[in-house]
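User: I'll paste a sequence; please echo it back and then give the predicted structure.

Assistant: Echoing your sequence first, then the prediction.
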Amino acid sequence: MSAPKTGEDSRLDQFLAFSAEVTAFGVVALQGTGQAEAYLRTVDGVVGTALVDELLGLHAGAPRAAGNEGGAARGVHLRRTIFGDGRLGPVARNIVKLWYSGVWYELPAAWTESYGPAPKDVTFVVSPSSYVEGLLWTAIGAHPAGAKAPGYGSWAGPPRIPRFAGDRLSPPAAEPVDGAVDAERVPA
């Protein structure tokens, strides 16, 4: 039997749900990085819990509908209400960058001029493990330099880029040996 969820658990769940939708990685994959709590603390620490709660509330309130049309409508809603918002958009984009790189990037100067300075808003690596657990490594089919070594001789072959749900591209049919572009990997 699991313990009842507290307000912080629910908030972390909301953060994970938002992060999963905007990174294209599932909640379980994000939890597997071990970075969720640290990233939520980071965003709270830089822009404040009120702004983060507003962002998560808008995400939770986005219409849910099944099928491709529903997904498209939801995407439009999120682009307009969160990513298109002058105050929330840069923060949402920073959350995506945070998950992929493990780095909080300083918000744009225009954001600071419009909404005031945030004393902790500087570019920084959240922790040594955040670099290692960055989603970019999985997304590009590689490993972080100096960590998670894939084994002897693994650099002899090209990276294997995993497929994502909804990926319309097929994996390369064969390893290119002459530097030619694999036509199947080039989007139409």
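The first strand starts at residue 103 and ends at 104. Residues 169 and 185 are 6 Å apart (CA to CA).
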